[in-house]
What does this fold into?
Amino acid sequence: MIYLLSVAQRRLQRWMAAQPHSEVTPAQAGLLFILGKQNGILMGEAGAALDLGPAGISGLVDRTAAAKLVERRADREDGRAWRVWLTPKGRIALAQAKTAAAEVNAALTQGFTSAEIDIVARWLTSIQDKFPRDPED
It folds into this structure.
């Protein structure tokens, strides 16, 4: 199972990154999806949602901000904290990423029943509980 999961994840990420219409990396798309649900999220919260540590989310936000898809602003209540906001260009990229994700999800689920997909989704979700980011959880 470990091998199949690992190969599938790498193959899917490589395929998605190689798409000519892809203006964002899969990691950047993940950040855009998070911001689409909660624009102005704290960087730490975005990192937790994407399973990234402080250095990982900082680098991702830096690269995404350099592409002018997001902007980082100091938190109004805690000057040490930073929030991440979608830019107008980021909103367009988010819409494109949603369309691309729907197409990929359709290909991933093709040939499987809804019940089968529910089981796969439940299994994948259970991995997060069985193997928490912080082993002491």
Observations:
- The longest strand covers residues 70-74.
- The beta strands are 41-42, 70-74, 82-86.
- The longest helix spans residues 88-109.
